[in-house]
Amino acid sequence: MRRVLLFLVCSVVFIIGVLSVGDVIPSVDPFDDRRPNLAQDFSGYDERPIALMKIRHSSERGRPYDVGLFGNSRILSVGRENITGNACSTFNYALSGHSFRSTVQLLERLSWEKALPRLAIISMDHFELQMTNNPVWTGWWRRWHVFLGDIAIAFREPNSDLRDKARIIWRLISTETIIFQRRFEFSFFRRAVLDALKWNGDIFRDVDIGRPGYRPDGSFYSPPLPPKEIAAMTRTTPQIINSVLRSDLERLFRMARDSNLKLVLYESPLHPASAVVFDAAPSFFADANRRTFLETCQGFGITCFSAPREPFLRLGGWGDASHPPPSMLGKWISSIIHSQFAGCTS
Amino acid sequence: MYVVIFNDFAFLFVFLPAVLTLFFMPGARRFRAHTLIVSSLVFYGISGIEHALILCADVVWVYFLVTRPGFCMSRVLLTAAVVPPALALIYYKYLGFFLRTFIDLNNPLNHQKFNLFVDVLLPAGISFFTFQIISFAVDRYRGDVKDIPSFSHFAAYIMLFPQLVAGPILRYRDVSVPLRHLEHFRLDGRHAARAVGYICLGLAAKVLIADTLNHYIIDYGNDPGHLSQLAVAYTILAYSFQIYFDFYGYSMIAIGLGALFGFSFPQNFKRPYMAVNPREFWRCWHVTLSFWIRDYLYIPLGGNKSYIRNMFIVMAVCGLWHGAGWSFIVWGLYHACLVAAYHYWKAVWDRMVAVIQRCLTFTLVSLGWLLFLFDFAGIQKILSSLTGAANVTHPDPSIEMWVGVTIAAVFTFLVNLEPLAENNATVPWKVALINLGFSFLFVFVLLFLDQSETFIYFRF
Q1: Using a CB-CB distance cutoff of 8 angstroms, which residues of chain A are in contact with residue B448?
Q2: DSSP states of A166-224
Q3: pTM given for the model
Q4: B99-121 pLDDT, tens per residue?
Q5: A36-138+204-340 CATH choice from 3.30.70.20, 3.40.190.10, 3.40.50.1110, 2.40.128.50
Q6: Per the CB < 8 Å rule, is B189 touching A7?
């Protein structure tokens, strides 16, 4: 059995090595303000190193941004050029495919690094789409800590049933599986090893004009989409437990209060075709989540609201029913900034 | 449709550890056969619950009949036992093909009329487990299976997930002893080391060699009519190695998984590309299928008494077993021609030096695989490319692509992997080096697992 033990021990060591090396980020800062605001090639990087690079950029910048945009792909494409009518310095901290929980973690980490912006505008998924709420970009210890906390909350929640616990466990399994598999993609591993050995140099080359890529303002540029008909979304069952949402909002509020951070949270808009359907007949879960969201925010004095329909009535440019065009979203966010800040100094 | 396959993170890191834990759980020894059955049904059922139901129905039906008193030597009971599984195989695999042959299904009216029989989703591995079920019934009928196994042992024998979807095709005698001793099986160092060796090398053969070659030839395969002669030669060579390492890799993993549960599966490949003639090739390629066909079809047909006639029949059946299409039947008949030609010109062939014999056999076999890769229209196109008549739009194979084929050739002709896979070295430094190598290979394979393809033989 010794030979098999040797195999198992060596395999575990190699696997840990592969998992660990994925956390290495390049010495070059792709979000440096001095870079031209052009889309760059981020092949081989997933959201974990991208989050770490955004955090490092903010902490090494020396002075805070006026406005930070937080959320996921629904706000990620909003760049500096889309924020008009003010002189605010803006950085997009959003991480594709991430949940509100991940955003809270990111803000806590920025707070710890003393790198928070002055105003954080947080895009939350529409409450009909709140399918997962796991932190993804953080280290495994953080994810497991959150998982145990969620399980404890689910047991305390009077209305929580076995399905809620099963969903929390399934979400953890699903998240961990995705992260684990991603670390074993060869392109990802190769890039991480080269970064660790500092053999990569500045690998963030500008992509060809019109091609997608991350820009130095933290946003992700996607080429404008041709007009297309977008049908109303199919209804799914949102899976966020009210008490988990409430506890996240509480953490966020406490962190904002301690760090003197101004917060604006909004529920992301839907394409008009879907908005008509869901506004007319919201699901029970979405309705309960939205009520919790608004009531908790009101209790803490945070500015929270659902995005109004009027600014998003134009049908062109939507990627799908839940991804508004960056120009449209940016214009609306500019109006929020205008209402929150008398004038930016930077 | 999601299929759990051996070259999948979910299988390696969730399914297999869970099954091993349940199998070796203290106090659950008595339920080991049940553990294997349930886990195999989960393994199979994930691809479609109705497919698992067909498997269960086959198992229950055949077991019910073979345990009837007087089953031995009762042709009626034997027929009753084998016909339903065979009909299920025909319905799922061949009915659509037969209908397409005789009826114009492009006509919407016909298509609607025969909707129930065409475009039916083929249950993975149905050809394998049906053959296994038939072999058991026939062996029992012939009196070769003296002691009737318990239902759980019979079900475990048919459903055993390491070999369920792509073999090796087991006879009951291959597993009867391990099944009887399942409760007392203890995973010792020898079994575990063997499992490690076979699984690691099998995964490497599949993921690092077969899938890399697939990646290289995919563009050529999609557009066979616009290739240079060099690209055609490359496609023939690369696909020949790809299909070998794909199935060989699967069989090695199956043997390794079997060893974890106390089974010693027969080898399915005996270095077939080293065969010196077409007849020997069939004694070394997919050995368990060749022997199945010999014992349950060729010999009942009269065996060597009508050698050529029977050879053509069994090879046509062998082709049809591989796939419901004329190209597969032609492939079978092509091999029958090769074997018959060898039979007639044996004296001339055997006078050639062994290297020439091997090269000729390998070339002829490799040309035959084109019938696996393309339909008749594709064959026509690639043959036109081969003659240099094509309008070439694809570049010639790169150096990297030739390196891939060369590596595959080295592992085919110069390296015998089985002794290494046995992992039974006794010199301490060799033991350390080999197992360190296996762990490195395993983790290296994981880095390419996301790009790995389904096993080719799953569709049979």
Answers
A1: 186
A2: HHHHHHHHHHHHHHHHHHT-HHHHHHHHHHHTT---S--PBPPTTS-EE-TTS-EE-PP
A3: 0.82
A4: 878 777 777 777 777 777 767 77
A5: 3.40.50.1110
A6: no
